[in-house]
Design goal:
Four copies of one chain form a homotetramer.
Chain A lengths: L5 H27 L8 H12 L4 H22 L3 H17 L2
Helix pairs in contact in A: 1-2, 1-4, 2-3, 3-4
InterPro entries (chains A, B, C, D): Csp_YhjQ (IPR005560), YHJQ-like (IPR044543)
Keywords (chains A, B, C, D): Plasmid
Protein name (chains A, B, C, D): Ferredoxin
Chain lengths: 100, 100, 100, 100
């Protein structure tokens, strides 16, 4: 198996974690509290692109960083979703490093 | 149900069709013929973003148009994949209209 | 490209169409009208399995038929979602033919 | 946010990890070594169903346990894919606990 650059592996982990936390939060607290339905699909897609080894991950990571920045801000505003805020921030940080 | 702009509905249809044709081709002819594994995940993600009604579809559609342009060129080069070339081109045309 | 059995191609089309209609409806009318969030992910997964040519589609198609039967019933109850009811029913019919 | 049963959270983690390891392996060593293309989509779908809180995860988890059992056996046969074998086995164990 080819060696995966550590910061890319970290980014994949952060994207998949963000996808999981955001989706679970969206299905429970977030919608009830008047939040917008967060869109964790981009996190999953970015992880997918890094896993299959295509350079297009640079563009999806850039997009992912933007969307998760917005999501973190929305979650802070709605409140009581610190796990989601934290997951988004780690995802943003990693994705910025991987973006074009 | 909110009205869907007809060119967006067309774009969703073209993206999902491209995803289907490319994935099926990738699993059969394409790999055997020495083609690169095409990546239809972006088509599916673009359709998803338009279906849930987020403006971020503008960025995924732009990315989708780029990737499918490349895919169509690869498929032409490998040969015997006209269905895939056609699906990619329709997808590119629609996605360019929806992109930012 | 290998020949695709026509009823399988029809099933793929019906699954992807059901995924699209249900997701779009869920994001607009359905949630506002007190409906449960439908889960079109299984339709997409069933289509995916048929497209890559694995026999496991028999199990996902069986599951898809069950979930879409329920979804059609929920949509009828909530009302004003005939497009969703119709898409689910076509999907159920196709998936039953493909199930184990 | 509703409390997630710890064995379900563990299962989600194992499914997403298995998806990542299998997909990455499939794109590199596995295909070159004559392995079959593994299908990690079911792991991702099972995680998705548990995350959105639907009881249908019982069926996808059962299916996931079956597919990953097969995948682990294939990977052992091809060789040099211990990470994939391990990820599949953890996934199988968790999914059996969550299956119907």
């Amino acid at each position: 198996m080819h060696e995966m650059v550590p910061i890319m592996q970290k980014c994949i982990d952060n994207c998949l974690r963000c996808y999981g936390v955001c989706l679970r939060t969206a299905m429970s607290h977030c919608l009830e509290a008047g939040g917008k339905l967060t869109e964790p699909a981009i996190c999953r897609t970015s992880a997918h692109f890094m896993l299959i080894g295509t350079d297009h991950h640079k563009h999806t990571c850039r997009e992912c960083a933007e969307i998760c920045t917005q999501c973190a801000a929305d979650c802070r505003r709605v409140g009581d979703m610190q796990a989601c805020v934290d997951a988004c921030r780690s995802c943003v940080e990693s994705c910025r490093q991987m973006a074009a």
